[in-house]
């Protein structure tokens, strides 16, 4: 499987986290595209890695949701390659203590928003650009947001997804 565009008038938000256990940091990557595959926004940031990968994957979903809300892009489908986090958010499995409060926060934002948002699972092969953004975040110490563009290091992956 590969990246699929969202329905017309919807946005696709791909999110991912990458960890550097030697540095106790995690990189978060977010990519927002419209239904024709054009990049609307991208962001990277780093967070402390507390040895809970599901927590940083939930942070990625939270950051993606926050980004599209901040720039007013809705409705949106948020995709993560963390099966457990997606199932936690969609109430298909019960939350664990470490990640529970963050999942509850995401659920509250989803339910209180006037816009439509969905959170879905996407395998890594459908989430390549977000994965590379999260790796890029590990090389940077500051949060960065791009509007209608991506870092040059990521552009080739965006083009590859659009051509599939």
Shape: globular
Give the termini separation. Answer: 10 Å
Strand content: 25-35%
CATH homologous superfamily annotation = Ribonuclease H-like superfamily/Ribonuclease H
Order of strands across the biggest sheet? 5-4-1-2-3-6
Low-confidence sequence ranges: none
Q: Main beta sheet, described?
A: 6 strands, mixed
Structural class: alpha/beta
**Mean of residue pLDDT?**
88
The appropriate CATH architecture is 2-Layer Sandwich
What's the number of domains?
1
CATH class: Alpha Beta
Q: Per CATH, what is the topology?
A: Nucleotidyltransferase, domain 5
Residues in helices, as a percent range: 25-40%
Tally of individual helices: 5
Rg, alpha carbons: 14 Å
Tally of strands: 6
Domain RNase H type-1: 14-136
GO molecular function: nucleic acid binding; RNA-DNA hybrid ribonuclease activity
Protein name: RNase H type-1 domain-containing protein
Organism: Citrus clementina
Describe the structure.
By secondary structure, this protein is of the alpha/beta class. The protein has one domain (11-162): Nucleotidyltransferase, domain 5 (2-Layer Sandwich). The protein contains 5 helices and 6 strands, in the order E-E-E-H-E-H-H-E-H-E-H. The protein has helices at 53-71, 83-89, 97-112, 128-138, 152-163, and strands at 11-20, 25-33, 39-48, 76-80, 117-121, 144-147. It has a 6-stranded mixed beta sheet with strand order 5-4-1-2-3-6. The longest helix has 19 residues, at 53-71. The protein is globular. The N and C termini lie close together (10 Å). The model has no long low-confidence stretch (mean pLDDT 88). Residues 14-136 form the RNase H type-1 domain. InterPro entries: RNase_H-like_dom_plant, RNase_H-like_EbsB-rel, RNaseH-like_sf, RNaseH_domain, RNaseH_sf.
